[in-house]
Write a structure and sequence with these properties.
134 residues; alpha+beta
């Protein structure tokens, strides 16, 4: 895992190989970073779940060789940016088909995070999630 702290955005940048075996490593590292920055257990669990779902989306829906994210704490919220969302046109906010075998990841992320959006940056798209701090 490649990691850099205190990026220009004031967060932690993590990159792992686009390999299903790396999702748990990424999930645990995000949890550790959040916990070390003052997040409570409920917030850590929400961030870990969001990371798992979004990393799985990168694996299933992109041809990227890496999963790249940035986690940062702002005064009023936590921000999680996950790259490689170039194939997403919009976030579908409808309940997924309960009989479908896939397609629940973004719905799950939306249920644990306060805001989920697609952000365009220099011709690339990423999913940005925010969780407000109470």
């Amino acid at each position: 895992m490649d990691e850099s702290g205190d990026t220009m955005s004031g967060g932690h940048e993590l990159t792992v190989a686009s390999d299903p075996a790396m999702i748990a490593t990424l999930r645990h590292r995000v949890g550790d970073l959040a916990r070390d920055s003052g997040a409570d257990d409920e917030l850590v669990a929400d961030l870990e779940l969001a990371v798992s779902e979004l990393a799985t989306n990168v694996l299933q829906h992109s041809d990227s060789s890496t999963i790249h994210l940035v986690l940062r704490r702002e005064p009023s919220q936590w921000i999680l940016d996950v790259d490689h969302a170039d194939d997403l046109d919009e976030i579908d906010r409808t309940l997924p088909d309960p009989t479908a075998l896939t397609g629940r990841g973004l719905f799950i992320v939306q249920s644990v995070m306060d805001d989920v959006e697609i952000v365009n940056d220099a011709g690339h798209r990423r999913v940005r999630c925010a969780k407000r701090v109470s």
